[in-house]
Design a protein that fits this description.
The chain is an alpha/beta fold. It is 27% helix and 27% strand. The chain has helices at 15-26, 60-77, 138-151, 164-171, 184-187, 249-262, 310-329; strands spanning 8-11, 31-35, 87-96, 114-115, 127-136, 155-158, 175-178, 194-204, 211-214, 223-228, 231-235, 239-240, 271-281, 286-290, 300-304. Strands 3, 4, 5, 8, 9, 10, 11, 12 and 13 form a 9-stranded mixed beta sheet that branches. A 6-stranded mixed beta sheet has the order 6-2-1-7-15-14, with helices on both faces. A hairpin with an 8-residue loop joins strand 9 (211-214) and strand 10 (223-228). Helix 1 (15-26) runs parallel beside helix 3, helix 1 crosses helix 7 (310-329) and helix 2 (60-77) crosses helix 7 (310-329). The two termini are 22 Å apart. The mean pLDDT is 95.
């Protein structure tokens, strides 16, 4: 017989799992998170984490999710300093080596942008956009979400999940929510999920205050720098199908070279840490409920496949996933 357990088991402790669990717990639902890694060791902790969709589907529902998330992140950025959300509104530029064409539609959600002037562009870049957007320091933000979840009565457990239905039965949960990211390829048997490995370098900040994003093209890899006080997050890399979670020195060296070429003050920057994560890419986000399985297995709600937009879609997707789970509780 199953032991008495939570009403909902959330699998995954990254930003999608934590945010979904917060939505459920704050609605009065009994929730437990189960994951093989604590939030600070997930892919979400590696994210540059500026609001702006990347490696994810476009369309009406993605627009709905990102706009809902933007509203929440703005609220968190406006919270008193003591709230410790880790979210702020940052200004910076997105730059291109060649003509970028029309700006992406999502940039209009931010309420304003302008074309960069020649003196604002790093060497080697021909054009770009200047705008302000929510930026999260992910170790702080994940800690905020975890604390908020636990204040609402949620529990976080560390453990390997080999089967979604099995974990729910073992823990006595009536519904399971799958926020397992790239590992949904195995857990949900979904071959459409592809890990896109990203590597980042955390360096001492030489005085930078603005972000820079240089999307990858035929000439160079994606590069970005996101300042957070005394440190700056430097990236990046995009290696589809690569499951390696160990930092690769050659990739780190390339990141440092590319970022120093964009911002010369980073030349010789003191490296503080290396981080690696697996973006869960999928042609479309999977946000749907499965009926109860054969033999009375628990219903499963899936919320994964956010690519490089986990933070950018998090609250919009979490609210819908939580609503689906609550419906199945009856």
């Amino acid at each position: 017989m199953p032991v008495s357990g939570p009403e909902v088991l959330v699998v995954g402790a990254g930003v999608s799992g934590l945010t979904t669990a917060v939505c459920l717990a704050e609605a009065g639902v009994g929730v437990e998170i189960r994951a093989d890694r604590l939030p600070g060791d997930t892919t979400s902790a590696v994210a540059g984490a500026i609001w702006g969709p990347h490696l994810v589907e476009t369309g009406e529902r993605a627009a709905r999710w990102r706009r809902a998330t933007l509203a929440v992140l703005r609220e968190l950025a406006a919270a008193p300093a003591g709230a410790g959300t880790g979210v702020r509104i940052a200004e910076g530029i997105q730059v291109f080596r060649g003509p970028p064409g029309s700006p992406p539609d999502w940039i209009g959600d931010l309420g304003g942008y302008r074309t960069c002037g020649p003196t604002e562009l790093p060497r080697g870049f021909g054009t770009g956009w200047r705008y302000a957007a929510p930026l999260a320091h992910m170790p702080t933000y994940l800690g905020y979400l975890r604390a908020r979840f636990e204040r609402a009565g949620g529990r976080l457990g560390v453990g390997t999940v080999a089967s979604l239905a099995g974990a729910a039965r073992e823990g006595g949960a009536r519904v399971v929510v799958n926020c397992s990211g790239a590992h949904a390829r195995q857990l949900a048997g979904d071959p459409e999920v592809t890990p896109v490995r990203g590597q980042a370098v955390v360096a001492a900040n030489p005085g930078l205050t603005e972000f820079v994003i240089a999307p990858g093209d035929s000439a160079a890899e994606l590069a970005y720098l996101f300042p957070h006080g005394e440190e700056v997050i430097l990236g990046g890399s995009e290696a589809a199908g690569d499951w390696n979670l160990e930092p690769v020195p050659a990739v780190a060296d390339q990141i440092l070279r590319d970022c120093a070429a964009i911002e010369p003050r980073l030349t010789g920057a003191r490296v503080l840490a290396h981080r690696v994560g697996l973006r869960p890419a999928r042609p479309t986000v999977r946000l749907e409920a499965e009926p109860a399985g054969p033999g009375g297995g628990p219903p499963i709600v899936h919320n994964y496949g956010h690519g490089g937009a986990g933070v950018s879609l998090s609250w919009g997707c979490a609210r819908e996933a939580a609503a689906l789970a609550a419906e199945r509780l009856g």
